[in-house]
Amino acid sequence: MDEQSGQATVEAVAAVPLLMALGAVVLQILATGYASALADGAAEAGALALADGRPAVAAARDALPGWASEEATVGVSGGEVTVSLSPPSPLPGLAGRLAVSSSAFARRGGR
Questions:
Q1: Number of C-alpha atoms within 13 angstroms, CB side, residue 92?
Q2: Does the CA dihedral 64-29-87-102 come out positive or negative?
Q3: Rounded CA gap, 96 and 58, in Å?
Q4: DSSP state of 30
Q5: Where does residue 84 rank: exposed (0-12), middle (13-18), buried (19+ CB within 10 A)?
Q6: Domain ranges of the chain
Q7: Which regions of the chain does DSSP assign to beta strands (E)?
């Protein structure tokens, strides 16, 4: 094995952890964006239910997949439905810091 091929092997081995860390960061960004989209949809579902005279909290939770429904905090104040959600993360402390929130407003239904 000549000197140059040995150096290329060492550089490749050193680059693997860097690429894995970069991949983890990208996946965390995608998970946070997904959680934001889920919170948006759940807040809208809750607001639509509120406008229709149905329970907003139940509708917002029903609009979320199982893991997110357990992690979400849903609040109703007047005609505003707010959904807060922590994205999935391999580091529990990081998930709380990346929590997303979304609100939707609707007039209460009156027939």
A1: 1
A2: negative
A3: 23
A4: H
A5: middle
A6: 3-105
A7: 73-77, 80-85, 100-105
Q: Give me the tens of pLDDT residue by residue for the chain, a chain 111 residues long.
A: 555 566 777 777 888 899 998 998 899 999 999 999 999 999 999 999 999 999 999 999 999 999 999 889 999 998 999 999 999 888 777 878 999 999 999 986 555
Cα 108 from chain centroid?
A: 28
Rounded to whole angstroms, how far apart are CA atoms 18 and 71? 31
- Prediction pTM value: 0.81
Pick the closest to residue 74 from 96, 41, 98, 107 (CA basis). Answer: 41
Please identify which residue in the block is written with the tokens 């109703």: 76
Closest CA to 88 of 31, 24, 20: 31
Tokens of 51: 């406008």
Single out the residue of 78, 69, 70, 68 nearest to residue 103, CA to CA: 78
Q: How many residues does the chain have?
A: 111
Q: Which two tokens stand for residue 66?
A: 């199982």
